[in-house]
Amino acid sequence: MSEPLLSVEGLEKHFPVTKGLLQRQVAAVKAVDGISFDVVKGETLGLVGESGCGKTTTGRLITRLIEPTGGKILFEGNDITHMSQGRMRPLRRDVQMIFQDPYSSLNPRHTVGAIVGAPFRIQGIKTEHGTKKAVQDILELVGLNPEHYNRYPHEFSGGQRQRIGIARTLALKPKLIIADEPVSALDVSIQAQVVNLLEDLQGELDLTYLVIAHDLSVVRHISDRVAVMYLGKIVELADRKSLYESPMHPYTNALLSAVPIPDPKGRAQRERIRLQGDVPSPLNPPPACRFHTRCWKAQEICKTVEPPLETLATGHQVACHFPENAPTTPEPAVTTA
Amino acid sequence: MVTYIIRRLIWSVVMLSIVSIITFAIFFLVPRLAGATSEDLAARYVGRTASAEQVKVAAEKLGFNDPLVVQYGRFAKGIVVGADYDYGPGVERCPAPCFGYSFLTRLPVWPDLLDRLPVTISLALGAAVIWVIAGVATGVLSALKRGSFFDRAAMSIALAGVSMPIFFTGMVSLVLFSYGLKITVAGGTYTPFLTNPATWAYDLLLPWITLAFLYAAGYARLTRAGMLETMNEDYIRTARAKGLRERTVVVKHGLRGALTPILTIFGLDLGLLLGGAVLTESTYSLPGIGKYAIDAIGRQDLPQVMGVTLVAAFFVVVANLVVDLLYAVVDPRVRLV
Amino acid sequence: MSFLELKDLRVHFPTDDGLVKSVDGLSFALERGKTLGIVGESGSGKSVTSLGILGLHKGGRAKLGGEIWLDGEELVGASAEHVRTLRGKKMAMIFQDPLSAMHPFYTVGSQIVEAYRIHNDVSKKVARKHAIDMLGRVGIPQPDRRVDSYPHEFSGGMRQRAMIAMALSCDPELLIADEPTTALDVTVQAQILDLMRDLQRDFNAALIIITHDLGVVAELADDILVMYGGKCIEYGTAEDIFERPEHPYTWGLLGSMPRLDRDRTERLLPIKGSPPSLINVPAGCAFHPRCTFEDRTGGKASTEVPQLVETEGGHLVRCHLPRDTRRSIWETEIKPSLEAS
């Protein structure tokens, strides 16, 4: 395996909760609580989980839109965890972000040309045939008509707007693109267009993606490897095939089982795992294994000892005392994390 | 909730102290910056017949030569325990709360303010009742009949209402109703409510309506905008889907949602007015706080101006506090921690 | 006559830019105890249809045409006041986003009590008891305590359960759910779908599920109606639509969707272009500018509006392609490409 482009080690983000006359900090929302993963050049890592699992916060931490509480972020081997905004600036070219909502993430008063060309101006980059030509090339690349340079976002449909958003991120030839729910606001037929576009661009421009999404089928389609998050922790990380075909963590199993299947024939016989209740609040997450309150396999140890994220098969990491589909049943780890 | 109120109360006291320091500094420093000496200031207190020596003694005794901090300390102490003003020829007692002592009228400021407060409160509260009822009702009807003749007419009148200053509408109304039609008094009279409620209302009718017209116009526009927004909310659709009568939908679900921003503005408006409806009181020669302030400024009676300023600041701060507390009552999502 | 029958329903909105034909000639029938799934993308007219059935367009700017028969009563021509008395009692609705669909200033209980007391002359105390019962039935723990909570104090799943409790409080015979699980997490969505399946059995209501998610309709629906540009373009049993779809748009939807129950395909097969603006619906077949097989209609696609025609045993399709051509395209071109490559 080649060198990781992005490396995240023990990343944490705690939002303080204050109370009382003096606004003392009484607790913390542990939105992201010690997660580690690598993104290798050229691959797509999918980050899935339900609301409140910390996947969006993770994206914002990596792009340094918010300050991490702890841990390290390495980009191409350089520690950027606490790098100043000034020194980050050249790096901002290399890491770009695609947002969920193509309606609110584009300034309605700027033309498409201005939006897509903004990165050139901000970074002070001169291009061979001028910015306009460069922008039009990018518009063509994402499947938009280059003649639409002077139009405004409201003249476009949702799918076209998302293409504009993608064009903006591509302007400076980034190395890593973080896509936060890139298709969830789009119509089904448009989702597929954008998914295909992202795949084509990856091939053509040698891009690396970190895709953050809640839709397990989209993530499976687009990702090479997938990390599953639950309440600020990664519970399972594996390549696409093993994660979807032999998931080890009970939560991953439950997630996959919950996805509605577009096949009415088998619906009566289908075996389903149904979790009870909602995801607990990240303000007061359950101790030790955070999933134990909803897990049907939970035992005493799950309430007292936090399972470490361990490699149980090649490239397949799981944080569970009683994993399913494990190659050999390992002794429950009694090491404290 | 309780800690929130305590915190807000402490904060209010701090706010008032800051306001008093600033006003104090302005009123005591500005004349000096303009070149006035302690003796010049003292001369205003002892009268024109006094000799230079007497003035000098008075300046010393009144503490004009002390540092600003000491002078402010004395002023603040006066509010709590009262103060004696020894200006040479005699000693004037100013009982607590001493907001200053006017040597021009030879009276402490506080009792003056207390005398005038009922006038201002009567004016402000009476007008407030009228403008809230008229403004909100017009706004709701305009929103429901958006684009109709009523809506256009009401909004045109409202635009005129917010554009015309009190001294203009006041004068016009005086000419029309007092001098012309002779159905109201020409201003300048005030009967305390307890003496005769009917005369009280009759005397204040014209000022009320004039003042309310100005505010009602703004409230109508605000209510209309709020209602238009709220009536598009999903929960209105839910209310209709339940089979509620349209009137219940509008009042119980729509108006309740639209009223919160109006509550905020109302608190601030009322707070400001209680500190003196300067223009209205001058136009109609009503002996309220505002008129008092104008007269004090005309006489350059600094202690009086200072007293009015502090009372006005007090009302604004209290109004803010009340609004914040009411907000939590109206909107359960506002959690007071 | 069926319990619910729509005949040529039209909902048109006059605007400054022209007439928006949100729903343009929609007909279907639905019996008690059955579930109809209406599938479509944004602007297809699926939500406007549901609001039309409930009579929520009455008194607005919309122009309604056609007939809606509910249990033998015609609703399009009925007075707004009469339809109001049916709303909430005979027919009820569940909305997409339970957070914005509940009034933030009133407790969950009081909102259910309100819904119940509109149509039932009972004391507040009795209504409150009923609200607690309903909250319990939809699986909210400690309903006697949660009845006094505000919507924002509930989690997303709990809120949608409370919305369902509110809709079912007057025991309606027709329940319309507009994207009931779109705003929810996937594990919660599964719970809500289970709940709706169970409740429908208990209440024996006619259920209409409106969604863009083919997975959701496949889980619940007996019959499926696919809408495009304000019209029904395909109607059939769930098996018809998933096993033997005959409209190119339905094929496109199936090809656009990555599926977890099959091996991963190398490429998704999206529909080109975007859904049409309802002000400028393309002439002829509204779908023809996006249709891959438009050239096989002999030029009729852009000139003539195709009719909704029965192809076999209640399976209706609105397409110019001859029936045999459609079937062979499905069997030889589309179906294999949806399987793993």
From TrEMBL, chain A:
Transmembrane segments: none annotated. One of its GO terms (biological process) is transmembrane transport. Keywords: ATP-binding, Nucleotide-binding, Transport. The keyword Cell inner membrane does not apply. Residues 6-256 form the ABC transporter domain. GO terms for molecular function: ATP binding; ATP hydrolysis activity. The keyword Glycoprotein does not apply. InterPro entries: AAA+_ATPase, ABC_transp_ATP-bind, ABC_transporter-like_ATP-bd, ABC_transporter-like_CS, Oligopep_ABC_C, P-loop_NTPase. Pfam families: ABC_tran, oligo_HPY. It comes from the Bacteria. Coiled coil: none annotated. Belongs to the ABC transporter superfamily. This is ABC transporter domain-containing protein.
From TrEMBL, chain B:
Residues 117-327 form the ABC transmembrane type-1 domain. Pfam families: BPD_transp_1, BPD_transp_1_N. The keyword Membrane applies. The chain crosses the membrane at residues 9-30, 119-144, 156-180, 200-222, 257-279, 308-330. The keyword Heme does not apply. InterPro entries: BPD_transp_1_N, MetI-like, MetI-like_sf. Keywords: Cell membrane, Membrane, Transmembrane, Transmembrane helix, Transport. Coiled coil: none annotated. PANTHER family: DIPEPTIDE TRANSPORT SYSTEM PERMEASE PROTEIN DPPB-RELATED. This is ABC transporter permease. It comes from Planotetraspora mira.
TrEMBL record, chain C:
PROSITE patterns: ABC_TRANSPORTER_1 (PS00211), ABC_TRANSPORTER_2 (PS50893). It is found in: Cell membrane. It is a peripheral membrane protein. CDD domains: ABC_NikE_OppD_transporters. One of its GO terms (biological process) is peptide transport. Coiled coil: none annotated. GO terms for molecular function: ATP binding; ATP hydrolysis activity. Keywords: ATP-binding, Cell membrane, Membrane, Nucleotide-binding, Transport. It holds the Pfam family oligo_HPY. Its main location: membrane. GO terms for cellular component: plasma membrane. Residues 4-254 form the ABC transporter domain. Belongs to the ABC transporter superfamily. This is Dipeptide/oligopeptide/nickel ABC transporter ATP-binding protein.
